[in-house]
Structures are given as structure tokens and as C-alpha cells.
Amino acid sequence: MKKWSSYASDxxxxxxxxxxxxxxxxxxxxxxxxxxxxxxxxxLEKHFKIGGWTHTFRRxxxxxxxxxxxxxxxHNKWSAARKLFDLISDCQLxxxxxxxxxxxxxxxxxxxxxxxxxxxxIDDMINYFPKEEKAIHTYVQYLDEAVRSARPYFAxxxxxxxxxxxxxxxxxxKFFKYAxxxxxxxxxxxSDNPKLMGVLTGQWGDYGLPPKKxxxxxxxxxxxxxxxxxxxxxxxxxxxxxxxxxxxxxxxGRLVVNAGVKKIVVHKEKAIGVELENGDVLEAPxxxxxxxxxxxxxxxxxxxxxxxxxxADLETIDQTESYVCLxxxxxxxxxxxxxxxTNLWVYPGYNHDRNVQEFMQDTKNNFPVVYxxxxxxxxxxWDKEHAGFATIEAITLARWDEYSKWQxxxxxxxxxxxxxxxxxxxxxxxxxxxxxxxxxxxxxxxAELSTPLTVSSLTNYSKGEMYGISHTPKRFRQKWxxxxxxxxxxxxxxxxxxxxxxxxxxxxxxxxxxxVLGKNLTTMLK
Length: 526
Description:
Layout: E1 5-6, E2 18-21, H1 25-36, E3 41-44, E4 56-59, E5 62-65, E6 71-72, H2 80-89, E7 95-97, E8 101-106, E9 111-115, H3 118-128, H4 133-157, H5 161-179, H6 183-188, H7 194-200, H8 216-225, E10 230-233, H9 238-250, E11 254-257, E12 261-267, E13 270-276, E14 281-283, E15 286-289, H10 293-300, E16 322-330, H11 334-337, E17 343-346, H12 352-361, E18 370-373, H13 375-378, H14 382-386, E19 390-398, H15 416-436, E20 444-450, H16 452-459, E21 490-492, H17 502-517
Parallel strand pairs: 1-11, 2-3, 2-15, 3-11, 8-17, 15-21
Antiparallel strand pairs: 4-5, 6-10, 7-10, 8-9, 12-13, 13-14, 16-19, 16-20, 17-18, 18-19
Helix pairs in contact: 1-9, 1-17, 4-5, 4-8
């Protein structure tokens, strides 16, 4: 397993072409592409591990991913996502294909399977809903059109200011036909069947908003992404960071952990460096933040004097809800337990919006969703380090205000009341898991619940947000969510300038590196 080097003041004596704040996949991709184009980069990570949402953690014989549960398209060597992963990892990152039945949508009265490839998905949906054949074909057509129309929309983000403004109406018009409408609006225009709505939006947890709140464009990105199935990194999700770091370091770059940034240093409205939490100031011609737009503008720039005040833009976005994740360790192998790699989405009813509303009003109500994932079944090399053991993750929504009272207390020292609340919540989630994975009950050997406080500590998200910025129609109308900021030489990367998810954050790195270098780096994917 890779051992990251902690920050030491010797870094002060080195020169870099760019400093990148945060080592999530957006930051790593940006760093790797700049390194491949001859730039010397420094990546600073507040946490003690590189990788952001792609890192893993271990307890004894168990290992869990913290944010990557499956990725579509990368089994196809000619897909843009696979080409970009191959480029930034020097083809060292390998993939395990999941079962064709990649997602199972479970309601109290019936279960529905999402099965690859897309032709099978369409056939199965028609078999489930024979009277909705036309609606289902049109729905898949809309998925294709929404994704296709998004390409120029995102490409516009990498263009320089004046050119971006001139071309904006022409590059975004078709996309807004889908992005401006909610998922509920689009699907209900095709069918008034509430069960079809519930089934087709069964992956809403992948982007964090139920149908009446989410942009259809965001729904389309996720649903289409998986139509040909899901994949998982061989060697677990930490292999993403490990392979990309090798590329960055082989070209003279550096990555250091335990290097929290206190603020971005701005002089005469130009970013010139960063001040670390220990007081060290590092300078570079280019500063790139992968810390999220709220962190960047509300924390890292809060004490800086910037006349064009980018802080006002934060009023135009909303942050996503918090969540909890129960990490389970089993003392038998996945084979012994007959576990497979199909993700389970467990719902109390077909009306996702009502489920969420009722839970957020009173968290004693039914969980609006419980997502159950099996990382040990998805990794082809799991048995090399964990033979005889298996893992499960179960995720559901949470309310930040129920945890904020403990936010200033250190990990594992938040008191008896906090631990009892975690135990009660863990048992509630376990009851759902056992209903659908009954064989896990006798094999359970370890359980650990991560709360919104864990997320806040890991990502610096102020409210333990699941996905940064909410993917409402309003989000996609924010022209300022792009790599270039109003502050000269300060750039953004990561999911907030594109959309949620590892693959989207991956392409944010491509956009940002293109904007920094002033050239179209998609030519590197040919």
C-alpha cells in the first residue's frame, strides 16, 4: 500500500508551476495533465491520505471505499472515460466488470433489476411495464440527447472569457432544454404511471436529489452512464490515486499529506500562493482549488480583499444533504456467503420526493433510501489481501442539525450520548440490511458508522454534504461554475464545476488543465 509523505518545510525551497489544493480525483487529474504537459506541480492534501473520495480505509482484515462504489463505461477501452483514466495512470489502472445486473431497485411490493447492456435494460423495463413501451423508448432517447447536448456546454467552461461569452448561447441552448427541467417534469410528460417514475429514478441517490428537485440533465448523466454496466478498480478504489500519483511524481511533481491550507494568498487581485495551517507560505504562478467552491470562496478567500467579490456568487447555489454510512465486516468470504456485486437500492415506497420530505421532517420515519454495496465482491484482487473476509456498506440520508452539536469535539471523544445515537442508528440500518442480505447476520464481525461529522472532517464540507452543490436546474445556469475564477491565476477543479461523481470530477480535471494551459487537451485522448 502506498505511503504518502507528510508535509515538511523543505517544500518551501522548491519551485512549482502550479499548486493544487486537495487531492480528490479532480485535483489529481489536473495535476497529472499539467505534469504530462511539462509543468511541475505540488498537490497539498489536508487529510493523511491522498485520493479524496477515492481513498479507502482499513480495520483489521477489512477495507472499505469511502465514495467510489461503481463506475460506468470504463470497461470499453474506446470510451472517453477509459482513455482519460489510462492517460493519467499510464495504463496501470485496471478494472473489474460487475455483474450485468448492476443495480436492483427494491420496493415493499416488488423488485426491479437494472441489467446491462442497454438493450437488455430496455427490454426488462418493457416487460415490467408493457403498457409503457413508447414512454420507455422515448425516455432512453432523452437520456442520449441530454448527454450529447452537454458536451458543448461543458466545453464552453474551458474557453477564455470573451470567447466563452460569445459562444455561450450557441453551445448551451440544446442542453438547457433538458437541464432546465426537473427529472419529474420530463418523465411525467412521458407517462403518468407513478411506479414507472419510481423505478426509472431508482438511482437518485447517486446524485442526491429526488425527481421533483433534480435536473433531468443530472439524472440523464447517471442513468446513461451505467446502461452498459458497472465497474470497479482492481485492487480497490485507492488504486486510482496510487497510479495517478506515480505519473505525477515521475514527471517531477510532489504530493504531500497533512498539509491543510488556511487561505489562498491574493495580491492586487492576483492569486500568488497559499498559506498553510502551520503558517508556511508557498508561492506559485498558478493556484488551483479542488476544495469545493464553498470552501474556496467562503473559507480560503474569506479574509482576502477582492474587489470583484466572488463570495456573492455563493448565494446562487445550494448545498446537498448529509448522509451516514454503515461499514460492515464479515468473517466469511463473499463466495461462502453467496454475495454478488449487484447494488441494492431499498425504498419504502415509489414516491421518492415524499419519502425524502417525510424523513427530513422527522428522521424517526422510514429511511427514504438505503443503498447497499458490496466492495469485496467488486474487486477482482480482494482475496490477495483479504482472503476469507467480506465487506458491505449501507448508506442513507441524514440531517446535519442532528449532529452539529458535536462538531467541535474530536473523533472518538464525542461522548456517550453521541455513541448511543450511533448505535441506535446502526441497528436501524442493520435491520434493513438483514432483510435483504440475511446471510450477513451470522457472519457480522465488525460495524462502524460514519456520520456527517466524518464527512465534514474528511472533505471540510461545512455541513457534511454528500455531493457538494445540489444538482437542481438552477445549478446548471451558474456561468461562474467553471475553471477560471474572477481572481487572476486562481482556478477551480472538481465536481462543483462539472457534476457529481468520480468520472465527472475526472473530466473537470481535463477542463481545468485545458483552461490553465490555454489549449484543448481532449486531443490527448485520440
